[in-house]
Amino acid sequence: MNDMTKTETPDDKALVADAEAAVATVAKAREAIGKIIFGQETVVENALITILAGGHGLLVGVPGLAKTKLVETFGTVLGLSANRIQFTPDLMPSDILGSEILDEDSKGKRSFRFVKGPIFSQLLMADEINRASPRTQSALLQSMQEYHVTIAGERHDLPAPFHVLATQNPLEQEGTYPLPEAQLDRFLLQIDVPYPSADAERRILLETTGAGNAKAEAAMTVEELMKIQDLVRRMPVGESVVEAILKLVRSARPGEDNPLDTAKHIAWGPGPRASQSLMLTVRARALLDGRLAPSVDDVLALAEPVLQHRMALNFGARAEGLTVRSVISDLKQAAA
C-alpha cells in the first residue's frame, strides 16, 4: 500500500490537529516578535527554529544589531523566564552556576545553603561568550549539554525548557578565548546577524527614537511551547529528506569515502550531531512555515547555519581564498 492510499489513523488525525494549532500559535509569536525586531526576518526565523527544536543558538554579529533586544523579546513573547550574563575575562564559573554560602540560624547552628546563579532561567543570554575564560565557558557549555549543575557533589536540575542564546562579536578578537570545536558543536545553529536593509533601518530610526517605544507582549505560555517542542519531534520526515540530510552532512567530511572534489578542501567536518540537528530543525522550519512535514528545500536552507560552525578548511583551501560558506554552497548544489 503506498502513501497515497494509506488510511488515516486516529493518531494521524491527532497529529494534524496538534500541528494546525501549533502553526497558529507560532504565527502569533512570530508576529509579536516582528513588532519589536525590524529587518532581521531570517535571524528571527532561525532563532525561533532553534527554540522550537529545543536547542541552543550562537548569534554572530557586530555590536548594535539588536542581538540583546532579540533575546529579551523572545523571553517575553515565548513566556520564558530570562536572564542575561555579560561575559568578561574575570567571570568565574560560580558567577554563572551559583555557589554555597554558610548560614547560621538563631541557635548558632551552621549549614551550607546553595544560592542559584543566573543560569537557572529558561532562556539565558550569554553575551560575548568568547570573552570568558575556557574554564567558565566549559561550565556553561557542560550545563547546556547535561541540563543540570553539580555543586559540592549535589545535583541541581535546570528549569525546563532551558535554552541558551549566546552572542559573539566577529571583529574584536583581542583578549578573547575562541570556543573550541567540541564546544561549538553544542550549538544547534550558528545564526549570522547581518546589517539591516535601508528600509528596515529607516523604520528603526522612526520607531525607536520617539517618546514611546513598542513593548513585547506574550504570545504563548511555557506549557504551549513545550507541547510544540514535543510535536516537532513527532512530525514525520520523508525518506527523500532523510537521504538529503545524510548526503549533505557526509559530503562535508574529508576522506576517501567522499566522492566530491570539495572534500580535498576540508580539514575536518561535522559529526552525527549535525545530522541530528538537521532532522530537528527542518521539522521546526516546516512548522514555522505552516507545513506539516519538511522538504528537501528545508535541508538546503538550514545547511549553512547547521554546518558552518562544525567544519573547517585546510590551509590549501584558505590560501586559494575559499571560505566555509563557499564550500557549503558547493555542497548544497551537489545535494540538491
Notable traits:
336 residues, alpha/beta, Rossmann fold, Helicase, Ruva Protein, domain 3, 11 strands, 15% strand, globular, disordered N terminus, P-loop_NTPase, ATPase_AAA-3, AAA family ATPase
Task: Report what the structure shows.
The chain has 2 domains: 198 residues, 3-Layer(aba) Sandwich (Rossmann fold), CATH 3.40.50.300; 101 residues, Helicase, Ruva Protein, domain 3 (Orthogonal Bundle). It has 13 helices and 11 strands. With 336 residues, the protein is an alpha/beta fold. The chain starts with 9 loop residues before the first helix and ends with a helix. The chain is globular and about 75 Å long. The N terminus is likely disordered. It has a 5-stranded parallel beta sheet with strand order 2-5-8-1-9. A hairpin with a 5-residue loop joins strand 3 and strand 4. Helix 1 crosses helix 8.
SSE layout and pairing:
Blueprint: H1 10-34, H2 41-52, E1 57-60, H3 67-77, E2 82-86, H4 93-97, E3 98-104, E4 110-116, E5 123-127, H5 134-146, E6 148-151, E7 154-157, E8 163-168, H6 181-184, E9 189-192, H7 198-208, H8 222-234, H9 239-251, E10 266-268, H10 272-288, H11 296-307, E11 312-313, H12 315-319, H13 324-335
Parallel strand pairs: 1-8, 1-9, 2-5, 5-8
Antiparallel strand pairs: 3-4, 6-7, 10-11
Q: Assess the beta-strand content as a share of residues.
A: 15-25%
The named CATH superfamily of the largest domain: P-loop containing nucleotide triphosphate hydrolases
Largest sheet: 5 strands, parallel
Q: Gyration radius, to the nearest Å?
A: 22 Å
Shape: globular
**What is the second-level CATH architecture of the largest domain?**
3-Layer(aba) Sandwich
Order of strands, main sheet, comes to: 2-5-8-1-9
Which consecutive residue ranges, at least 5 long each, have pLDDT under 50? 1-5
Structural class: alpha/beta
The CATH top-level class label of the largest domain: Alpha Beta
How helical, in percent, are the residues? 40-55%
How many independent structural domains? 2
Q: How do the helices and strands follow one another from N- to C-terminus?
A: HHEHEHEEEHEEEHEHHHEHHEHH
What's the tally of helices?
A: 13
- Report mean pLDDT, rounded to a whole number: 87
Distance between the termini: 28 Å
- The CATH topology of the largest domain is given as Rossmann fold
